Amino acid sequence: MLSEFLNHARVCFNTTPDEVSAYVNRHVGNHNISLLSTPTETSRLSFCEFSDIGLSRISYGNRLRVSCPDLENVYHLQVVLSGECQWQFNDSRVVLFGGQALMMNPGEKMDLIYSADCEKLIIRVPEPVLSSTCMEHLGAVPRSGVRFDRQVVDVSQSRALLSFIEAVLHEAAEDSDMCLGGLSRHYRDLLLRKLLNTFHSNVLDFDQPASIKDKTLERVLRHIDHNIKEDLTVEELAQVSGISVRKLYYLFTRYFATTPKLLIKQRKLNAIHRDLSSNPSIRNVTEAALEYSFTHLGRFSSDYRKVFGELPSDTLKRREGRD
């Protein structure tokens, strides 16, 4: 399962654990290793970048301990391909075998023990990238950021998740103008959405009250989406919802951990990103920004870049390269 992927991105083969560890420290995450068996030169590593996420396939070929002091501002999807890997946290211990996966959160500290035959696929996702996907998918992000439970998922039994992972790995191996032109971002976003839907997290608890239980917020969100190109005000939303401005701010803080103004801006940015990415009638960034009531173009470009990691002109150029 998945073991044939990333052969195109081989970094080292039949080498020492120290050499693999040095590369991992530079490109995957900060850690230290200590051997628990007589060392052999059977370590292997493949690594590549794909639309702001890192893909690595790693096998130390030795029984060893890996200490990770802190996953700084990144998530890890760690899939055990073969052998076993033990996670020791401050308050619990988890053991994964071939075909099982676990999501790791930013800031988590852990000790791992690899069996000599352990091989893993690690997908490194920067925190801003996942937050942006969550914002686009759900309209907001939990105040503390997205945090996954320590839930072990059997990837071999989750065909949909496995298919998304395989699709990303296939695209990463492609060397084509089409992939470089923007398809990679779509594959990445689909995978991240699938991770949000597969692994339990605070996103599920956070989303339920607004989308299911609170009819007032449902009316507000519908009004925003139906009038997304207008210059919406908080006072207008309060009038639509039939509550005071103060009450509206309270509900947005409680359920979305954001303000009405920020949520409106985020949904406008998401709509512009979709237009710049796929709407052939949009040929000018200024035109698109003004159509969605962004009048300060410098501030618009800055906000867009913070969310999507690139300028709106870059998004438009990629789409025009495919037209």
From TrEMBL:
<keyword id="KW-0805">Transcription regulation</keyword>
<dbReference type="GO" id="GO:0003700">
    <property type="term" value="F:DNA-binding transcription factor activity"/>
</dbReference>
<feature type="domain" description="HTH araC/xylS-type">
    <location>
        <begin position="218"/>
        <end position="318"/>
    </location>
</feature>
<keyword id="KW-0804">Transcription</keyword>
<dbReference type="Pfam" id="PF12833">
    <property type="entry name" value="HTH_18"/>
</dbReference>
<dbReference type="InterPro" id="IPR050204">
    <property type="entry name" value="AraC_XylS_family_regulators"/>
</dbReference>
<dbReference type="InterPro" id="IPR009057">
    <property type="entry name" value="Homeodomain-like_sf"/>
</dbReference>
<dbReference type="GO" id="GO:0043565">
    <property type="term" value="F:sequence-specific DNA binding"/>
</dbReference>
<protein>
    <submittedName>
        <fullName>AraC family transcriptional regulator</fullName>
    </submittedName>
</protein>
<dbReference type="Pfam" id="PF14525">
    <property type="entry name" value="AraC_binding_2"/>
</dbReference>
<dbReference type="InterPro" id="IPR037923">
    <property type="entry name" value="HTH-like"/>
</dbReference>
<dbReference type="InterPro" id="IPR018060">
    <property type="entry name" value="HTH_AraC"/>
</dbReference>
<keyword id="KW-0238">DNA-binding</keyword>
<dbReference type="InterPro" id="IPR035418">
    <property type="entry name" value="AraC-bd_2"/>
</dbReference>
